[in-house]
Amino acid sequence: MGSDVASDTTPATTTSRPARPTGSLSAWEGMARQYDYWLTVLKRTWRGGVVSSFLTPLLYVVAMGVLLGGFIEADPDKLEGATSYLAFVVPGLVASHAMTLAVSESTYPVMGSIKWHKTFFAQLATPLAVRDLVNAYVAFVMFRVASACAVFMLVIAPFGVFATWWGPILAWLSQVLVGFAFTTLVFAYSAWLKSEEGFGLLFRLVVIPLTLFSGAFFPISNLGPVLEWIARLTPLWHGVSLSRMFCVDHIDWALVVVHVVVLVTLTVVGWFLAVRNLDRRLEV
Amino acid sequence: MALLEGIPAPLTPAAATRVLVLRNYVVYKGAWKLFITGFLEPVFYLFSIGIGVGQLIDTFEFHGEAIPYAEFVAPAMLATSAFNGALLDSTYNVFFKMKYEKLYDQMLATPLSTGDIARGEITWGLMRGSVYSAAFLVVMALMGLTQSWWAVLALPAAILIAFAFSAVCMAVTTWMTSWQDFDKITLAQMPLFLFSATFFPVEAFGDGVLRWVVEATPLYRGVVLCRELTTGVITWESAVSVVYLVVMGVVGLLVVRRRLDKLLLT
């Protein structure tokens, strides 16, 4: 990093807006330089996440999919094309798990990096720009989400709930997309939020209702016409529906395009908001 | 001598509990949004699993009577939300107060004793929990999910569940050393929540050892007790559950007191 000392010493005290050394690195290099930092974080924290990342969703599969599913008549007409309740619930559970992981990784840790251990301020004192911090952070969270979902899908495969071999791969990609949308949006929220009380509200008023009513556990047509349309507007429903269509091989390609466009748009909007909010928040 | 007269007399256990509850009330007033939304979670679960998934299920047998799925799940939500609330309060919050805030050390510098702290914290947790349980019972009654006047007793039953788990979990917390230990709490919490005949009847476990194990776990006793009360099908099993939970709570309370003595007074 020695060669960057010149750009590093740009006076940060001037009042004009681009006071920070932004953009002196390419987006890729900005991310790559944080590789060893995030690898160290991962090495030191992965144990704490094993139960919540892998065991909890698996218990849900056994309890809801296998045991409760044993009491549910397997009617593909009522289950959006799935041949059993287990086959119905698994793709939805993995998609909502992607959301939960993405949200929990981008709430308290983001606020901590701003407020408590102030890692972001330390990182900004190097040639890294706000954009680079967001990119590397999102990449780290997405590594965790993508690997957790992949493991989950692999563990489920022997249960015979997947209709084709390529469907689960596309379903995994849609779960990753869910992770991207929620990571960037929640990052933006966390960078804006002043007190952690807001996180409790986020979990209770957004994450739990989304998990329960976005079609993961039952077809949203069971909600009645009004609530069904509200459910269609939630980002998680798009992910659940996408993931399920691929897993049970009951694909409506026009709908796939809609789902993908919505999730990609949310990711892009979330990213811009995240960079803007973090930039404002880190202004000294 | 004048100095000694200025020292207040030790508080009675009741007065000490009152002071501690008041302290928690004052602190909590700032977080009223969290308090209000706390009761929503079981309601969401009831609407989602009980009604949404319930449309895919006919009826369940409970003590020989066929009951609709929502009526089956609702009392379980009452019991598990009492359990979850007690568990979170007496693990995360107690750990934070003990290790980080050093709150109990400060309290012991006053006329309060370790027994007062244990009683006060648990009383506060129970008061908070019973507000939620009462609200949830009202929701159940409004939705027509209660079948007899026995359902009124489901409120004390929920408070009993909360008491038993608060005491035991607080005792467990006194052995914890770091946040990483909380993964073990989740490890116990999730299976209890999902497999205590919450969402499906205990018959799903077959007739073997597994079913006996489930029937001997505390949350299962609580769930079945609440379900017996709200459906009005009272059996001798209800009495077993009550005795089980009372013993569990009292033992927990005794252990908490001994552990706090050891941790804070030495």
UniProtKB/TrEMBL annotation, chain B:
Keywords attached to this entry: Antibiotic resistance, Cell membrane, Membrane, Transmembrane, Transmembrane helix, Transport
InterPro entries cross-referenced by the UniProt entry: ABC2_TM, ABC2_TM_bact-type, ABC_2_transport, Nod_factor_ABC_transporter
Location in or out of the cell: Cell membrane; Membrane
Coiled-coil features, chain-numbered ranges: none
Domain of life of the source: Bacteria
Family (UniProt): Belongs to the ABC-2 integral membrane protein family.
Family annotation (PANTHER family): NODULATION PROTEIN J
Protein's UniProt name: Transport permease protein
Organism per entry: Nocardioides cavernae
